[in-house]
Amino acid sequence: MQFCDECGSMMHADGDEMVCSECGATVSKDQDRAAEFVSTTEQSDDDVIESEEGANFEGKPTASDVTCEDCGHGEAWYTIKQTGSADEPPTRFFKCKQCGNRWREYN
Q: Does the residue 56 lie in any domain?
């Protein structure tokens, strides 16, 4: 990882240059140090967790150990998201497969 000398923000690779993501400053890559740099590809949308109200839960994993408070159905789609600090357990967001009711469960 390389940081900008101008503003301290993280820089990203752009061809033979490192470009600051904040101020746009550029620095040539040192070819002797090229092996030290690692470039990654963009994150694909298939592993993004949707937890907002309009999220499409269909096709997500299902849980059969829950009961919908609205209709009493015992199966729901769910996603997991880390809503607190890293040392706290994640939150599960549910959507009832029968009535569409949404709720969350804190572990």
A: yes
Q: Does 58 share its domain with 96?
A: yes
* Three-state SS annotation for the chain: CCECCCCCCEEEEECCEEEECCCCCEEECCHHHHHHCCCCCCCCHHHCCCCCCCCCCCCCCEECCCCCCCCCCCCEEEEEECCCCCCCCCEEEEEECCCCCEEEEEC
- What is the pLDDT of the chain when averaged over all its residues? 78
Which residue would you say has higher pLDDT here, 54 or 85?
85
pTM value surpassing 0.70: no
Count up the domains in the chain and report the number. 2
Enclosing domain of residue 72: 50-106
Q: Is residue 71 part of a domain?
A: yes
